[in-house]
Amino acid sequence: MKFDTSKKVLVIGRAGMDIYPEPPGTKISEVKNFSSHLGGSAANTCVALSLHGIESDLVTCVSNDAIGEFIFNKLDHYNIGTKHCLKIDKSFQTQLAVVETILENNQSILYRNNACDLKLDNQIIDQINFQEYGAVFYSGTALSSEPSRSSVLLASEKAQKAQIPQIIDLDYRPYNWESDEMKSIVYQKIMNEVDVIIGNDLEFNIADNSENGFLLAHDIINSKPSIVIYKMGEKGSVVITSEESPQNYGIYPVQAIKPTGAGDAFNGGFLSSLIKGKTLDQSVKTGSASAAIVVTRVGCSSAMPTSSEVEEFIKKYEMGSNA
């Protein structure tokens, strides 16, 4: 698996608006003021890539209204390409998330009725020249319903033909999926077509439709994927490849103020490091350090660290063991 470092990363998934009660520590039920931030897993991952020095283009749909304009302005602020971002009729709504900066009993309330990012269609994918990109990253929520599901699978076909590395964060969210059987079918299909799979233990269980997600993560490496990252929250992660025995990684212990944003930060740190030619070990540590930093700050996109911040963090702190 080789990355063309002269090209951007194509990121497919959702963008939205995150609203945080202010000051940090305030419950939603008691709030008087809010701050607004760019949100959505794919958009957050683009921000993380950008702050690590990797350019990206986002593929998504947003509502043709003031919230859609907010998102475009924020993407531009972070130097994220928007030529594949489509504004659609405002009867379809951009995701809105109200998220507390509280660690215990954290409330994260999502509004995704008639979500416009799931209106991504094949026509948008057909307009993309995949040869312009050095990698394609998918946020798994885009697979949860049509027409977005078919569009992601079409993008995967085109990326394979162009021989571009593909990465997926399984990013399971229960809404929009029509059945457990379909979740398993769709996830296993895409997992057999990409090069890097990132998911937590729950997501692998869901993909297997059982409690044996780790076995699926271990066995699927015999198919196309080169790297599987099996995340276990506070217990760390297991990195599985076809060339070496599974490697266990811990986490960087920090004083977190919220639980959100870690996964997107990991994605950006890990992928940017791989693209830069770092070792798998270095890339996992970069992703883990990025995740550790984000949970100590307000917001998700606005909390993403720069490469220099991550490098200084790794020098200062030691990763714990998950053994």
Element order: H for helix, E for strand = EEEHEHEEEHEHEHEHHEEEHHH
Rg calculated over all Cα atoms: 18 Å
**Low-pLDDT segments, ≥5 res:** none
Proportion in β-strands? 15-25%
Helical residue percent?
25-40%
Total helical segments: 10
**Strands in their spatial order, largest beta sheet:** 5-4-1-8-9-10-11-12-13
**Count of individual domains:** 1
**Total strand segments:** 13
Q: What oligomeric state best describes the polypeptide chains here?
A: single chain
CATH C-level:
Alpha Beta
Mean pLDDT: 94
Q: Kindly report the CATH topology.
A: UDP-N-acetylmuramoyl-L-alanine:D-glutamate ligase
Given the helix and strand composition, which structural class is it? alpha/beta
Q: Could you state the CATH homologous superfamily?
A: Ribokinase
**How far from one another are the termini?**
29 Å
What does this structure look like?
33% of the residues lie in helices and 23% in strands. The chain has helices at 41-51, 66-77, 122-126, 148-161, 180-191, 201-208, 213-219, 262-275, 280-294, 307-316, and strands at residues 8-12, 16-22, 33-39, 56-63, 81-88, 95-99, 108-111, 133-139, 166-169, 196-200, 227-231, 237-241, 247-249. The strands form two sheets. The protein has a nine-stranded mixed beta sheet with strand order 5-4-1-8-9-10-11-12-13, with helices on both faces. Strands 3-2-6-7 form a four-stranded mixed beta sheet. Helix 4 (148-161) links the parallel strand 8 and strand 9. Helix 9 (280-294) packs across helix 10 (307-316). The protein is globular and about 55 Å long. The relative contact order is 0.15. The model has no long low-confidence stretch (mean pLDDT 94).
